[in-house]
């Protein structure tokens, strides 16, 4: 029978137009509706297996997914030359990324083993979810009866969060899609679907060879409640090209806090050789993840601006730890003081440093305990306003630089794009700069 391959110009116009459209999540379709229809409508794989009344027989569909299918055909002919011109012709609405003609010719180059030169198999990977396709087998100039099948709809079932730490959590789920389709988790602090879609972050995983997936959220903050939902679709260069499924049930979890209670500061024993205990938070912060205040070296109050002209503690050329010029002692009492350069060196050399949260470093001691030090940025006498916040951290020691009387010793750190951490200690910086202070316990 003859099959037309003519494509109306209106179809081509629709195809070209759709290249510029980007799908958005639809919260109106529930998971239950999607799961009810996810199996699709397909002819049995055994269709045509025992019917050799015709020279060519259209078979059923074996494996099927939202964007792919395996189709069988049969040839009632012992002529081995049939293999040179046999296959499946399929027509319908294809994924324009792979096929914009409206039909596809799938040629087979061999018979399936153990079928006595009778059955052949072809596969296609350019289908659309929830779409009906017509197909028929051909061999040489002969064609078989036309059949049809419907691909299943996409679904994604999102589970509860597990492995929750102060900075991360893992989301588990299942789906029936594979690459180039993805499942994406939308998450944030808004308990509202519209606000969550607008303000939330996204993490997605490409799915290959399994209906199970996990997504690790590794940029969380301690003591925070997060809300999330899942979407399944195709992610393109400019974001989600098409969204086929949205789990509109918003779920939530809460990350544990770093400290045992809200009575900050806590003294954290990192198992350091000297026994030094470090504060859980910065001076001026109400919790470990807050930036806190910024202090010029030797001054105990914060300022609106930090310049050489408004810096008043130029003359001190000795260790100020525990003195009236120590911002930690002045603000927290005599049991706390600024760290010395040697204590900063000990911290760096006896801990591992890992990027965590939204711009911060976990310094973890050999005993497993840690302090979180945020990249609070700084105020510089050479620039206006706060800068480098969330990207770099600058922390004073209590020790001046004796070679350059306008400088003092600090520790600073920064991150690479890959979130590798680089920490420097013992560097000298302008004393008039506004830096953070992370105190140590004075025992």
Written overview of the protein:
Helices cover 9% and strands 38% of the residues. It contains five helices and 28 strands. Strands 3, 4, 6, 7 and 8 form a five-stranded antiparallel beta sheet that branches. Strands 11, 12, 14, 15 and 16 form a five-stranded antiparallel beta sheet that branches. It has a three-stranded antiparallel beta sheet with strand order 1-2-5, with no helix packed on it.
Name its key features.
mainly beta, 5-stranded antiparallel sheet, 443 residues, 38% strand, rod-shaped, 28 strands
Oligomeric category? single chain
Low-confidence stretches: 1-39
Tally of separate helices: 5
Provide the residue-averaged pLDDT.
83
Largest sheet: 5 strands, antiparallel
Termini separation comes to 94 Å
According to DSSP, the number of beta strands is 28
* Proportion of strand residues: 35-45%
Computed CA radius of gyration, to the nearest angstrom: 33 Å
Secondary structure category = mainly beta
Shape: rod-shaped
Helix content percent band: under 10%
